Amino acid sequence: MLNIVLFGPPGAGKGTQSQKLIAKYHLVHLSTGDLLRAQIAAGTELGLKAKKIMDEGLLVPDEVVIGMIDNALQSNQQAAGFIFDGFPRTVAQATSLDRLLAGHGTGVQAMVALEVDEEELIKRLLERGKTSQRPDDQDETKIRRRVSVYHSETAQVAGYYATQAKFHALNGIGGIETIFGQICTIIDQHQPTAPKASATPATSVSEAQA
After folding, report:
1. What is the pLDDT of residues 61-77, one digit of tens each?
2. Domain-by-domain residue ranges, the chain?
3. Which band of pLDDT confidence, cut at 50, 70 and 90, is reported for residue 197?
4. How far apart are CA 204 and CA 207, in angstroms?
5. What share of the chain has pLDDT > 70, as a percent?
6. CATH of region 2-205
7. Which amino acids are annotated catalytic?
8. How far is 131 from 108, CA to CA, in rounded Å?
């Protein structure tokens, strides 16, 4: 199973690259943000709780996130692999993810981080907020708080994967296809054999569980 962590601050381009990687490697997309937003749209109790937290630019509690990951793994046991988009966000989550994947007989092969400077991130997210209707994409103060949270907590995950020789940093500013090619080169170095095409179209876990 090929499991890749695609990493980077809000607005770094993880979503765009995830979709291209899903198509190429037949991976199941696992974005905790998408999962939570699907529950927000459904008006569930978890969704309402998550909305309040996300609107404040804070991180959702680990136990909620890890529980969703476990459910996703159990629901997709025949998958060629997963692409973790924006997760794990803390060292504690990374440690829990390793334990969880080990319990399923697999693990993370590589972590790719897209690096973008703060002012470019602010510009991208404010532009995205014009169409996304996400409150946390429309307020510069909240955006800066999210980026600050990333640098104070999330960026430490890079060190965790670096100790396992799995961390790779890439410049997230440039052509989409150029960045995609660089990511693929890294992934190809970490998989022993080429992934086989799935008999059914690749799907997003967030869509399957929405």
Report:
1. 887 778 778 877 888 88
2. 2-205
3. very low
4. 5
5. 90
6. 3.40.50.300
7. 14, 89, 128, 134, 146
8. 34
